[in-house]
Amino acid sequence: RRSAVLMRWSAIAVMVLLVGCGVPNLDVEWMTADQIEGALAVEIDALPAEPRAVDGPLRVVSFNVEYGAETEAIAQALQRGAVADADVILVQEIEAYPGENGSRTARIADLLGMAYVYAPARKEGEGTHGLAVLSRSDIRNVRVMTLPDFQTVVRDRRRIALAVEVEGIDVVSIHLDLQLGAGERVQQLLAATSGLGEQAIIGGDLNTNPYAWIDVVPVVPIGAVSELEVPALVDDAMADAGFPANTAGSGPTHQSPAGELRLDSVYARGFEVDDAGVSRDSELSDHWPVWVQLRPL
C-alpha cells in the first residue's frame, strides 16, 4: 500500500510540475511606455551621463535587489568584481516611494552614470514595486508586457516584463510568479520573447524553485519523486525557442534558510558566450547578481 501511495504522489507531482493548476490569460501583448498612465507609469531617463557605444563584448548583469533600499551599497556592489562596468543591468524587485529622494532605480543609475527605465508592476503601500533596466548606451523603444495570469489565489500579483532597445539589441528584464508548475512558468517566460529581434537578451528572476505546486501549496520537492529539474526544463524550453541558457552552469543564485537555489537566468539569441557566472560576494539581497559576457554572432 505504501508503494502505491508513493507512486500516486509521484504521478500527481510530475503532472503538476509539467502542467500546473492555474487557468491562464494568454491574451498578452507589448505596450509602449506612453500607453501606461497613472501610478504605474514608466519612468525613463534614456541618456546616460557619458554615452558609450558597445564595440566589443557585451556584459549583462541580472540582479534581484530585494526592494533596493540600500541604493549606495547596491551601486558599490555593481562596481566590484565580475559585475563591474556592465553594459546593461537587468533589475528585479526594485521599489519607489514618494517620500524618498527620487526612485531607487534613478539613484542607483545616477551613481553608476547609466541611463535607466523603471516600470512599476504594482502599487506597494504608498509606492510601487517593479522592474528596471540600466544601460551605458542610449535606451530606445521602451515596452511593457503584463505576463499571462494563472489566477493563483494567494499572492495574486501582476507580473510584467520590461523590454528596451540598446544598440539595436532587444533587452528584457523579467520576474516570474513563484507558485507555478513548470509548464505555466514556461508559458509566462515565452510570452516575453514574442516580437523580439534577431539579437535579443532576456533575463531575471524566473523563480525556478524545486517544488511541485497544487494551486498555491508546495506539496513536495519535485526531486523527491522525479529526476526532472525545473531550471533544466525551463532552459530546454528556451533553447527550443532559440534562446540558449547562457548561465545554466553557473550554480545557485539565491540563498535562504532552506538552502541555495538557481532561480535567476540570462538567455540570449544571436550571441555566443565568452564567459558567465554568479557574483556571491554580496549580502545585500537574498539573490546574487548573475552575469554573462556576450559576443554577437
Notable features of this structure?
single chain, 297 residues, alpha+beta, Deoxyribonuclease I, Chain A, 6-stranded mixed β-sheet, 19% helix
- State the shape: globular
Q: Unreliable runs, pLDDT <50, ≥5 residues?
A: 4-17
Total of helices: 5
| Residue-averaged pLDDT | 87
Reported for the largest beta sheet, the result is: 7 strands, mixed
Helix and strand content put the structural class at alpha+beta
CATH class: Alpha Beta
Order of helices and strands: HEEEHEHEEEEEHEEEHEEEEE
What is the share of helical residues? 10-25%
Biggest sheet, spatial arrangement of strands: 2-5-6-4-3-17-16
Question: According to CATH, what is the topology?
Answer: Deoxyribonuclease I, Chain A
Q: Rg, please?
A: 19 Å
What is the count of β-strands?
17
Quickly describe the structure.
Helices cover 19% and strands 36% of the residues. It has 297 residues and is an alpha+beta fold. Residues 4-17 have low confidence and may be disordered.
Q: Could you characterize the architecture of this molecule?
A:
This protein is of the alpha+beta class and 297 residues long. It has one domain: Endonuclease/exonuclease/phosphatase (Deoxyribonuclease I, Chain A, 4-Layer Sandwich), CATH 3.60.10. The protein has 5 helices and 17 strands. It has a 7-stranded mixed sheet with strand order 2-5-6-4-3-17-16, with helices on one face. Strands 1-7-8-9-10-15 form a 6-stranded mixed sheet, with no helix packed on it. The protein has a two-stranded antiparallel ribbon with strand order 11-12. A hairpin with a 2-residue loop joins β11 (211-214) and β12 (217-221). α2 packs across α3. It is globular, with a radius of gyration of 19 Å. Mean pLDDT is 87; it is low at 4-17.
